[in-house]
Amino acid sequence: ACFALRPRAFALQPGRLSASILCAPLLCGCYLAAWAMSDNRWTALWGLNGRRAGLALFALCTAAYLIVRLFCPGEAWPVLTALLTAAGALAAALGWLNFWMLDPLGSYYCTLPGTGDLYLSTLGNLNFFAGFLCLCFPSALRCVFTARSRAGRGLAGAAGAVILSGLIIANTDTAWVALGAMLALLCCDRRLTAAQLGLVSRMGAGVCAAALATGLALAGGATSRVVLRTGSALLTRPPVALAGLAVTLAVAAVCATRTFAPWRLFRPLGIAAVALLAVGFALPSLFGVSLGPLNGAFWLKSGWGSSRWDVWGVLWQQYRELPPLQKLFGVG
User: Smallest Cα–Cα separation from 126: which of 92, 167, 170?
Assistant: First the structure.
């Protein structure tokens, strides 16, 4: 999202070589080396069943990146960002229809009997759905920041709000953490203006309005495909959604009437927040100090992060037993 603030961030320069262009090919080369050392090259090539995220997919993504980076006309970036924004908005809108038990494509429920609560839209499971929306939102910001007309800015802002609202039904806390980190970095960037902060706040108000409507509908007995939990369940509580709506609208109103540098306010707040998080994790995890009801969020022990901590522990033990080359490149 901070990248979207750069004037030439999305201005493609065909044929121009730079160090940045090597990142994807080098990563793909590491993946190729890992595939060559894999004990199961077929699975490493095509990926696990149901995901197919193997070397073949990564090689295709790398090829697509190089083609766009080297041969796409420099004037094409507004079209590319608009297309990605539209794709994210359409995916989120379809996800909302699926959430409310509607299936306009006519195949959603018949192809996923018994497991449909794990899938929305056309992006695979909920984590993939949330990840795609997180990738699309910076493009939406870019469209909003560079729109030349009020109508274009309003359309891009509405698309951005729809994309963000999809995180409510994605039902994954990782996406909310990513969104919070993104907004923190964006607000601390020197290039962000008060007017741009106001545009982001208006999109946030749209998300809070969607959360409020969802919470009221569920409280009224509406049937949903997915049972909201944790962060999404908290945001859709009417008092929380109303508070978020009031804050975002207030920020938008202030930004519309005053000129100031947002980073001067948010950088000290960001530093304080990082310090508090570091202390929050250190006290129970390193010193055994109980934080009461916050222990579940900050105490790094078995079961933390939906058992991610246990998974990471197993992976670390397996990593320690690998030969040096596989430690460097991976296991395919």
Answer: 170
* Tokens coding 194: 């008060």
Average pLDDT for the chain: 87
Q: Which of 97, 100, 85 is nearest to 121 (CA)?
A: 97
β-bridge partners, 119: 125
- Helix (H) or strand (E) holding 206, with range, is helix 194-219
Cα angle 324-325-331, degrees, rounded to a multiple of 5:
110
**pLDDT mean over 17-41:** 85
pLDDT for 206 equals 96
| Whole-number Å distance between alpha carbons of 312 and 314 | 5
Q: What are phi and psi of 169, to 5 degrees?
A: -85, -15
The rounded distance, in Å, linking the Cα atoms of 215 and 234 is 9
Asked whether the beta carbons of 50 and 115 are under 8 A apart, the reply is: no
Distances (CA, A) of 158 to 54, 183, 253, 291: 35, 18, 18, 40
CA distance 112 to 131: 21
What was the pLDDT predicted at 252? 95
At 53, list the tokens.
Answer: 């995220």
Cα(169)–Cα(99) distance, integer angstroms: 7
Give pLDDT, residue 66.
86
Q: How many CB atoms lie within 10 A of CB 329?
A: 19
DSSP, res 119: B
Q: State the DSSP H helix or E strand holding residue 251, giving kind and residue range, or none if neither.
A: helix 238-257
CA 306 to each of CA 142, 181, 231, 277, 289: distance values in angstroms, whole numbers, following the listed order: 34, 20, 14, 19, 22
